[in-house]
Each structure stands twice: as C-alpha cells, then as structure tokens.
Amino acid sequence: MTESATTASRPPLAAGEYVLDPSHTHVGFLARHLVVTKVRGTFEKVDARIRVGETLDASALEVTVDVASLTSRDEKRDAHLRSADFFDAEKFPTMTFSSTAVKAGGQGHFAVTGDLTIRDQTRPLTLDVEFLGTEKTPWGTSVAVISAAAEIDREEWGLTWNVALESGGVLVSKKIQLEIEAEIVPAPAAA
After folding, report:
1. Domain count, the chain
2. 4: in domain
3. What is the pLDDT of residues 95-133, one digit of tens each?
4. Which helix (H) or strand (E) holds 79?
5. pTM for the model
C-alpha cells in the first residue's frame, strides 16, 4: 500500500471483523536474565477481535491474554512468573489491550495506541504494527499477516520482583520486549 494523502487513512484490509488464527500466532515477550541472557516466553491462549473500518479512525483492536497459558520452556520459572511475585495469575487471570487510536506510520507500518492492563493496572502502550500482506492458503482461505512489537517497563504494571547481583545488575530486566507474529482471518459469521 503506498502512502499518499488519499490512502494514509485507509486500512490495508477490507472492512470487517477479523480474529487470530491461533495455530499461526505467537504472542510473546523477551527479558534479559542475569543482565546478558535473553529469555523468551509465550502466551499460548490469546483471543483478539480486530475491527477494520473504512478508515483507520474507524478501526479497533481488542486483545485478551490468558496469563496462566504462559510458557518459557522451564516449569519452575513458569510457576514463578504465574505467582504473586510477577503476574499473580490466580488473582489476575487475564491481561488485556484495548486500542484507542490507529495511525499510519509509512511503509506498511501502523502505530496502534491503546490501554494495556496487567494486574488491574492500566497504562498506555503503542504497538509498532507492520502489515506483511495477505495470502490465500492451499485450502482457499485468505489470511493477513502482521508483526508487532513494543517495549515496556514491567515495573509500571506492578511486576517489581527482582534480585540484585554482585556485579551491580539485576536478575530480571525491567525493560521487556513484546513480540507478536500473527495471521488473522475473517471472523466466523454469528450463528
């Protein structure tokens, strides 16, 4: 999609309701461990409703993440991340993101600003979303592909647990990278 005065406010997809294809979607995070190591985690259960309007201003995104579905490939670490030290999944079972604005950013990029709620604390967040295109599968369905990223300071959402290291660093970084790779498909028709 080229950026011009006439197309900058138009979405790259046809107007309508879309959802995630869960088997082709990754919603995850990256944190530094011991200052130098990168540790990645994934949320296995994520629901999203994407409304593509005739204009970007009429478009919206609503996401709900099941916190207990977190996996980082280490059961002990996962249990700790689900505990009250971090996400407190028993008390706060979901995280949500609700968009408030969608703006064109050029070269297939869009800034999706909204409210991210973790542990009942809501803060603004802007996702850098890249629209990677659409494709028809061998089974005749059409999918759109997006990639999105953002960086947050986890302590702003009450995720403050940490351990000081002898070197002067901390066990878990405050800055967390959010990573999203998703295929989206038209929402099923209401029954």
Report:
1. 1
2. no
3. 999 999 999 988 889 999 999 999 999 999 999 999 999
4. helix 75-82
5. 0.88
